[in-house]
Each structure stands twice: as C-alpha cells, then as structure tokens.
Write a structure and sequence with these properties.
alpha/beta; five-stranded antiparallel beta sheet; 43% helix; globular
Length: 652
C-alpha cells in the first residue's frame, strides 16, 4: 500500500482506542446501574447527568492514557514510520494497554461487588499488600478463567482493530508538522486542564451516592485517591478558631470525676472515682472482622447465623446502640485504642509518626499489665505491627519475613506452622488465633502477670473459607457461613477459657471493627455503622442492655469505670454509664466526617462543605434539614481538635 502524505491517518489508532475505551466504560456504567437497580435514581435528568458526567471523566482518563502514544507518534520521523521498530513498539504497547484496561474493567466489577464504590483509597492500599490481595483473588475467584478471559477479550479487540485496518493506516500514513501539533497540543492542554482544574469530587453532584459513584471513571478515581491519600484537615474542611474548638470539646468531655491538667490546646485530664479499686482483672479483647449488627437475631436477623452471640447478649453488658467510627479494620483499631474520632484521610494506624501515642495500652501498662497483640496474618498488613509495637504491645502474628523498624521497641513472636490447622489469604482461622492467645495467657498467668490480650480475627472475610465440619454451612460459600463460623469460634473460645485457672479473674470484651458493608445511597449510610459490643464475665455487675447511642471510642472509658480505676486520659471517649452521658456517635469515611445525635446527622465534607440531615431509621434515609449553627460548630470541634492533637504530636 502506498504511503499517504500528510494526513491524520497516523493517529487512527488513538481515535479507535478512544472510541473503544469510552464504549467499554459506558458499558461498565450500565452494569453498575443494573447492579444497583433498586438504589440508584432513575429520573431521566439524573440518568443523563450521570452518563454525561461519566463521559467527561472518561475523556480525562483517555487524555492521560493517550498522551504517551501521541507524543511518540508526533516525534517519530517520517522515514521511520512503518519500520520494523515502529511496528514492534506499536503492536506491543497497544496489546499491553488493552490487556491492562480489560483487566481493570473486570477488576472494577469485582471491586464494586465487594465495596459498592469505584476504586478508592482501599484499592490504593491493596497495591501495597500484594501477597494478601493476590491470595484473596486466587481463593475467591477462578483466576485461570479470569486471566484467560482477559487474554481472549484483549485478542478479540486487537483483531477488531486489525480488521478495521487501524494498524495498517497508522503504519502507512505520514503527518505534517501542522497535523502533529494540532493533535499533540490539544491533548497536552486536556491533561493540564484535568490535572489543575478538575477534582474527582466534582463527580459527586447527586444526593444519591450510587449515582455519584457511577458518574466517576474507575481509573481516574484510582489515581485521584493515590494523590489524596493524606488529607490535612485545615486545608480541606471547615474550621473555627482553635481556642473555641477546644473550649467546646472540654465542656463536652467534662465530668464530675475528671480534672483537666493540660494547658491550652489539650484535653489531658485525670479521671478519678470515689472508691478506686486496686484489682487488676485480665482483659481479653476481641476485635471481630466485619461483624455487622444486622447479622444478629437480637437486631431482627432471621438467618440464625449468630446463635452464640445472641445468647451472649442476654448474659453480658450488651451495647444495643453502638456505632463504628469507620469502614475499615484500621479505623476500628484506631477508635478502640486511641478513643478518638476518625481523622480525614488515612487512619492514624497507617500514618507516620504514630508510635508512642497515649493509648488504652498506656493505661494498662501504668498498672503493670503485660499487653499483647494477636493477629492471624502478617501484621505488616495495614501497618498493624508498627502501630501496636510502637504502642507497647508484644506482637504475635503469622510473619512472612517482613521486618519492624529498629525504632520500635517490642518483641515479635511468629505463629508456627505446627500451631495452624487452617489458613487462607488473610491468615489462620479464628480458632487457631484463639488457641495461640489461650496458650500465651496460660504462660502470663503462670508468671503472675495481669494481661491485656488484643486479638484481631480474620475468618469473616472474603474468600469466606474456614475449617470444614465445624458448622452446617460449607466453607467458601459466602458471608453467612463465615459469620456463623466466627460465632462458633467465639463459643469455643469461651468454653475453653472456662477451664483455665485465670478465667474467674478475666473479662472478655467483644466488638466489631466495622460492618460488613458500609455502602448505601446516602453520603453516610448510618445503619451500616451499627455494630454489637459485649462485656462478658465481669463480676459485681448485673447483665444489662445499654440502650444509649454511643461510639466505639466510648468502650474502654466505660470499661475503666466498671473496673473503678483512676487513670490519666487523652481520650475523646466517655463513660456511657454516666447518667449525664450525652448520646452521640462519630461515623465517617476517609473523606466524610459525621456527628450523629440520635436521629440528626451533621456531615463534614472536603472542599469545606457541610450537610445537615434527619436520619429516618426505619428506611435508613437522610432528609435534609436547615443548618443548625451550634450543631455544626460542635461537629467541627470534635474533628478539628482530634486532628490538631495528632498532627501536633500532642497525643504522645
């Protein structure tokens, strides 16, 4: 074929790629619409705006992806066009790009299946912890079929490009300097425009969260999350004067039993009781993976998948209206150990400079306790070992060779193969981690040391696999089975513990880290933060059901009151059993921060936005309310002071 002279044929591949990408992306968008059929807004104008907004962000994605190829086409001398080198480079990188994008489109579908959202900071985190993520994918999905499917689809699309003579035209077309500039400059301009003037949050135009998520482009959202993984409160959120904020919070935290000892921007205080107890009860604390309140019969579930926990609710101090602070394990860890509202961006557990903070471990250590952290996977995941080791815990985990910093003064024990009966992508089964904890507790008791054992479970997590023959639901068949096995393992733990000499002097605290799903149509899905919590085997107190609305951050301050301990506190949590306790809960995502008071919710968003709602619990909907300035200032104060204390190293 004779080479054409100076036309746009050289760029036909870019044009074809753009049309292909936009078509696939809109197809994925329609899949999400069908997936959330009952949740999205099907109003014609909303539908059109969702698709057009999505198209706008898809064009930005195409601009970024096309730029390297357009630079190549624009700089390649005419005499090299159609050469062997030119053909090899174009065929190779086109094939590679198609494979990556087809894989990404399929990954978006699986990500949506689990999180009901576009790629976000979770997807960014997953790039770091490749062992757990790849093992989870391998155990959850038919990986061979998926990879084969990606290869076949990529080959099919390449064949379509070939049949349309896309490659042939590119190899046989020259481009004048004018043509090259007329293509290159607009694309560079588009990339600069999207880089400096477009924020991924601008896709969030609707009160329906699903419409907002579908409006986004998955790849664009991924890189936006990568850029904004750390968020400075003062830069992104509405602020008030720090003196006013601390004044408000000090009034909220004031109790007859507390005395402020810190000056200025501080909440440090001494908590005293009338008759302090010298007793040091052992504490076994279980942070249960993804245990939604909605799984319990106590909260109207009819599947009978938590028979033990339902029975435990009748013979413990049971929190009926307790809410998680976030949607990820590290948020739950942050809440229960630091007793602090969630801060924007990453959890403190994953941030730099998070060692030697004043945590609940500090309180236990001040009374001579031995504090240990147990995790059935590698504690390198989510920075757990660095955080807990830096907070004074001894580490017991399933290490794979990852090393702790020399700056962290702790001892790490590896859980050996001989102690494992079942293991999946995320770690050993709950029974195995409990057995390790029991063995360690026996040793501490023999050494006459009171112990605080913090156990993080893993079994209630995709791929939902667990030892066979334990329950009546086959392993690997879904969430219900994993929940029921989690319940079974807890029953076995308590049964075994009762035979130990230390049991009569030990309190068991059980709470979820977060719900199994936090997604919903609203910007904050309040019902999907509701979790159960139990204080078990505490002598001297009658079993009761606490009906007050409260937060994960209140659990340990309440426990310390029940122990009748005097202690130092930098905690934002309070004793729920105080007659004057003001009911409230803190819930958030990595970008949204909310204060909930019964059925009223104030939501702070980045870009310094605020929304005030009435929460209708019956249908879990949010109805806009007229702004309440006092409520807004209180909400700002909780989050602003929490962020200030951490970022200024005043929690150490």
């Amino acid at each position: 074929m004779k080479k054409n002279t100076y036309n746009y044929g050289r760029y036909k591949l870019v044009y074809s790629f753009t049309i292909w990408f936009l078509t696939c992306s809109q197809f994925i968008r329609f899949c999400f619409f069908i997936w959330q059929y009952d949740e999205v807004s099907w109003n014609v104008l909303d539908l059109i705006r969702t698709l057009l907004t999505g198209l706008f962000f898809d064009l930005g994605t195409v601009a970024y992806f096309s730029l390297p190829g357009i630079i190549y086409y624009s700089l390649m001398p005419d005499r090299w066009i159609g050469s062997v080198l030119d053909k090899v480079l174009i065929y190779f990188f086109t094939s590679l790009m198609l494979f990556i994008l087809v894989f990404t489109f399929l990954a978006e579908l699986t990500f949506w299946d689990e999180f009901k959202t576009r790629f976000n900071f979770i997807a960014v985190d997953y790039l770091i912890y490749t062992h757990e993520v790849l093992a989870n994918i391998r155990e959850s999905y038919p990986l061979g079929v998926l990879v084969s499917g990606v290869l076949l689809l990529s080959a099919a699309f390449l064949f379509v490009f070939h049949k349309n003579k896309t490659f042939q035209t590119s190899f046989n077309s020259k481009a004048s300097l004018t043509v090259r500039i007329s293509v290159l400059l607009p694309v560079i301009g588009a990339v600069l425009f999207y880089s400096f003037y477009i924020n991924n949050n601008q896709a969030e135009w609707s009160p329906n969260r699903y419409n907002c998520e579908i409006s986004k482009s998955g790849i664009y959202s991924f890189f936006a999350a990568f850029r904004n993984n750390q968020m400075k409160y003062a830069e992104f959120y509405t602020c008030i004067d720090n003196r006013k904020a601390f004044s408000i919070i000090k009034k909220k935290l004031a109790e007859p039993s507390s005395l402020y000892t810190g000056q200025g921007h501080s909440i440090h205080r001494k908590i005293t009781v009338t008759s302090p107890s010298p007793a040091n009860k052992n504490v076994v604390f279980i942070l249960v993976e993804s245990l939604s309140g909605s799984f319990l019969k106590e909260f109207a579930n009819k599947e009978n998948i938590t028979p033990f926990l339902d029975s435990l609710a009748q013979k413990s101090i049971f929190f009926e209206e307790l809410y998680a602070t976030g949607t990820r394990t590290v948020r739950g860890m942050e809440a229960v150990t630091l007793c602090i509202p969630p801060t924007p961006g990453q959890s403190i557990v994953k941030r730099p400079e998070n060692q030697n903070l004043y945590t609940v471990c500090s309180v236990f250590k001040s009374r001579g306790y031995d504090c240990s952290f147990f995790y059935g996977g590698d504690g390198y995941f989510d920075n757990m070992n660095a955080y807990f080791g830096g907070s004074g815990f001894t580490i017991y985990d399933r290490g794979r060779g990852s090393l702790l910093s020399d700056k962290i003064n702790t001892v790490r024990h590896n859980i050996s193969d001989q102690e494992v009966t079942f293991e999946n992508a995320w770690g050993i089964c709950d029974e195995d981690i409990y057995n390790k904890m029991l063995k360690t507790a026996d040793k501490k008791h023999a050494d006459r040391k009171p112990f605080f054992n913090f156990v993080m479970t893993t079994s209630n997590h995709r791929p939902y696999t667990y030892p066979s023959g334990k329950i009546d639901i086959p392993s690997g068949t879904g969430r219900q089975g994993a929940v029921k096995y989690t319940d079974y393992a807890l029953k076995e733990l308590l049964k075994k513990a009762k035979s130990r000499a230390w049991y009569h002097n030990t309190v068991f605290v059980i709470i979820a880290d977060h719900c199994a799903s936090s997604a919903g149509r609203n910007e904050i899905d309040a019902a999907n933060y509701h979790i159960p919590a139990f204080i078990v085997n505490l002598d001297g107190y009658e079993n009761q059901k606490i009906k007050k609305q409260c937060s994960q951050i209140d659990l340990f301050p309440t426990l310390f009151y029940l122990f009748q301990w005097n202690y130092e506190s930098d905690f934002f949590g309070k004793n729920v059993l105080d007659p004057d306790f003001e009911q409230r809960a803190f819930v958030g995502t990595y970008r949204k921060l909310a204060l909930m008071k019964k059925d009223r919710i104030m939501v702070l968003s980045d870009q310094k936005k605020q929304n005030f709602y009435h929460w209708v619990k019956q249908d879990n909907s949010l109805r806009p309310l007229e702004m309440d300035r006092s409520f807004l200032e209180e909400t700002i104060s909780w989050y602003q002071t929490a962020d200030f204390l951490f970022t200024h190293k005043l929690l150490q």
